[in-house]
Design brief:
globular; Alpha/beta hydrolase family protein; about 300 residues; alpha/beta
């Protein structure tokens, strides 16, 4: 069970700005095991590319199972500049953590700046922060059922990207990240991916592994075996805090990875004493720039 909650208080934003606008829907498809073609930009640049920006998406049909929260959008997007003629596109999906029972979620003002979604200039990247479903009888707790069903994550991504238009390059890499209580949703998506529905290339868990490590380990083994030309190499980074509820499951995962012959720098379980709510912000940007990057103030589990 997630321990510390994720604060929704705003933290200093990094990098990308832009106005908040709505998206229109456009059909697009995913193909197993790789991601298939989606549609390019809310605003075209003078040279035909898409400038970096952010937007809130008030409603996504694909997230209807999550209900609504007054004053909150269904998702927030952030993206890098996407040059005209780009041939690569990375999709990053981040699952937020829980909040205090009487604290608003603040998806755009609080969760997005604190998500660690600070995107390097290359490869061109679109990050999606979907809102979880409030759990009845558990104020401040969320889950992500719409993303864990077969085809669910693909539908959310396709609808979120719909407003970028028909020139968007085909997605070539999918990265999942999660903080705190979002880890259970990430694990369920990884389980779904093992059925051949989609290919997840990287997973980053920020103090987010509280329960069964099995889904993450099974995904790591299967994804490591999918080494072929044109497929991005996989990576896994799991960060936990010693003496908390994430330490034991994370150490069990580390042992399982070792038994499978999967180790650093591409497959890592790390320990840090950094504050729970700071972990995505401290380590997310470095991992998005390089999944094998050295992370200060951490040690291998």
């Amino acid at each position: 069970m997630p321990g510390p909650i994720e604060s929704s208080r705003p933290v200093p934003a990094h990098g990308i700005g832009g106005r908040m606008v709505a998206l229109t829907r456009r059909a697009a498809l995913f193909a197993a095991p790789a991601l298939a073609s989606c549609g390019a930009g809310p605003r075209s640049g003078v040279s035909g590319g898409i400038p970096a920006g952010e937007m809130a998406v008030p409603r996504l049909n694909a997230l209807s199972a999550h209900g609504t929260l007054p004053g909150e959008p269904d998702a927030a997007l952030r993206w890098t500049a996407i040059p005209a003629g780009a041939t690569q596109l990375r999709i990053v999906v981040h699952l937020h953590g829980f909040s205090a029972p009487n604290e608003p979620l603040r998806l755009v003002q609080g969760r997005l700046p604190g998500s660690g979604l600070v995107l390097p200039a290359f490869p061109p990247t679109i990050a999606i922060l979907p809102r979880g479903r409030p759990l009845p009888g558990r104020p401040g707790a969320f889950d992500w059922p719409a993303l864990a069903t077969p085809g669910g994550l693909q539908a959310v991504v396709e609808e979120a990207l719909a407003g970028f238009g028909p020139r968007l390059p085909a997605p070539t890499q999918l990265v999942l990240t999660a903080h705190s209580g979002g880890g259970s949703g990430l694990a369920r998506i990884l389980e779904t991916s093992l059925r051949g529905v989609l290919r997840v290339d990287e997973a980053h868990l920020f103090d987010a592994l509280y329960g069964d490590h099995g889904p993450v380990l099974r995904w790591a083994r299967a994804r490591a075996a999918d080494a072929r030309p044109g497929v991005p190499p996989p990576a896994l980074a799991v960060i936990a805090r010693p003496g908390t509820a994430t330490e034991a499951p994370s150490r069990r995962l580390a042992a399982g990875l070792g038994q499978a012959g999967l180790g650093a720098p591409r497959f890592r379980v790390l320990l840090t004493s950094a504050p729970h709510n700071d972990i995505p912000r401290l380590f997310g940007p470095a991992l998005l720039a390089d999944a094998a990057a050295a992370l200060p103030a951490t040690s291998l589990a």
